[in-house]
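Lecture 7 notes: from sequence to structure.
We start with the chain below.
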Amino acid sequence: MDLEMWRDVLLPFVGTCLGALCAVFPGKRAAAPSLPLSCLAAGVMAAAAVWSLLLPAQEQLGSLGRFAFLPLTGGFWLGVLFLAAAGRLISRLYAAAGADENGRSRRSSVMLMLSVTVHNIPEGLAVGAAWAVVKAGMLRSEAAATALAIGIAIQNIPEGAIISLPLGAVGIKRGRAVLMGVLSGAVEPLAALLMIGLAERLAPLIPYLLSFAAGAMVYVIVEELIPEMASRGRAEAGALGFSIGFTLMMALDIALG
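Predicted structure tokens for the same chain:
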């Protein structure tokens, strides 16, 4: 792989690591992530789901004509349902956590780590799929794949923080708390490398994998990032940030693709 591909494969993981490092600083609490960054990342990811994932998938299914929406819809909903099922499983594990208050806090923090780890897998697949499309010679620019990786990396910064900070708050050593936050993002480069490495063998499945990754990303945006905008009482600012991110990604993909 060339340097640009390695950079984009590692960028989401770097974002998680930066967030996890928040636990190193004494006196830190589980602070809310920066709203402008979260909204900007949400817009980038939404546009990437369309221009970098769904449209390339549609192009590869061109032989199906007007019926291409059928496999696209199926792959998209598999991505949505995968994360929905994972979230429900984590919620049940949350509810089953017993013991004293401190014990429950620790278990809850570990369950949160597992939840973030599970939904990081499709994000890694999305980066890998974007580069697989570039390597396949389709009309998608490397810059668009990089923008997708940057958007996911920005979104991962608060995710790394919301894992490591609560762990530190319930008495787990800072180094271990940081390590657990880092490990939650380690699946992303692995998933991306797996997708890139198997791209040729999985060529007939790439449209389905692209739409699967798009569905998973849209689910993350709607389930996590958009409610955050409303809950913090800054819906207008959040909508503007989302729109800016969406426009930037759209312009980048169209202008350079």
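Points to note: The radius of gyration is 18 Å. The chain has one domain: 3-19+35-59+67-256.
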